[in-house]
Amino acid sequence: MIIFPPASAGLRWYNQPTPRIHVKRLFSRLLMGTLLGVAVYVAISLYADVNALGGRLQRFSWILLLPVLGLTLTNYLLRFAKWHYLLGRTGAQVTPGHSLLVFLSGLSMGVTPGKIGELLKSYLLKQTHDISMAQTAPVVIAERITDLIALMLLCLVGVFTYTTEPGFRVLLALAGVAVLALTVVLASRRLMGGVSGLCARLPLLRRLSPKIDQFADAISTLLSAGSLALTTTLSVAAWLCECLGFWLIIGGLPGVWAPVQLAIFIYAATTVLGALSFVPGGLGVTEGGMTLLLVRTAEGITRSSAAAITILIRLCTLWFGVMVGLVALALFRRRVSGELEVGDPIIPPDTKRH
Questions:
Q1: DSSP structure string for 248-314
Q2: What are the tens digits of pLDDT across the range 175-206?
Q3: Mapping DSSP to helix (H, G, I), strand (E, B) and coil, where does residue 112 land?
Q4: DSSP string covering 79-99, please?
Q5: Is residue 250 predicted with pLDDT exceeding 80?
Q6: Nearest partner of 192 among 176, 175, 174, 214, judged by Cα
Q7: Distance CA 91, CA 71 (A)
Q8: Helix (DSSP H) and strand (DSSP E) numbers for the chain
Q9: What distance in Å separates the CA atoms of residue 76 and residue 234, rounded to the nearest whole number?
Q10: Domain ranges (residues) in the chain
Q11: Are 247 and 161 in contact (CB under 8 A)?
């Protein structure tokens, strides 16, 4: 099994054992997600006609990828601001630089089911700052909740205007209800206490009751009214950036046009459905929904145009994020192995959180 090398003897800021990140297992999961992605894009290419798709890509204005990638990076920075704010709400003492590196490392797990692999961030903080995963895992959950709320709000831009499929509206309505219900339950200490009490009465789940209580205390703070308003606002701004990137890509194909409201709706709706499907990275669900909605609702968009747009935006968002995450994870490895000088403070032994 491949693990990160031991820390150098001269590393003063790090007084805990070097993180033993199971790189082989990590990359096997990434490989599985990548292979699934390849299969999805092959299927989309066949649906669109490979030759026609190639022709559309040749006519695309590739210079537009620069502002699109810039908008994607802005998305990451806004979501990092949310992550660092929520992390501070838990009482964790992490400098912005180290926090940013940990946050970006989590992007490497973008092709895990429901992005649950982003719990890697909690693991990294446990290893470098000895902050328990029980303290920081709720931050990852709160991130996902506020992302879903923001995307559902962005869906309202066009759900009643552009889609004529009753079944699709029902699906989005069910998704909205599920997100709302989950938020209410997690934010309510009383409801979570009921869940904990129920587990305490069941022999097989009894041991989970104290952990649920600990989780409930943390998540209720992160999802309090003021915190939820701020983090949802950051999420709306972040995901609006990627929606605008999607709109720019649509406009990069000759003869293709769509109003910005439609682009926001399609991107937000298909991202929500992909996330709630719990398929790694939403692969297949997001791409399929995006392609079909483009063909049915946007002006002048053929199968080949829709496929080209879908492939390009996913390369500039999902797969770009995975690449950024892998680079950040490599930099994190260098930090903990002592190859870079860093000044992140470690919580003193008498104040460590467990």
A1: HHHHTSTT-B--HHHHHHHHHHHHHHHHHHTSBTTTTHHHHHHHHHHHHHSBT--HHHHHHHHHHHH
A2: 999 999 999 999 998 898 888 888 888 887 88
A3: coil
A4: HHHHHHHHHHHTT----HHHH
A5: yes
A6: 214
A7: 31
A8: 14, 0
A9: 11
A10: 23-349
A11: no
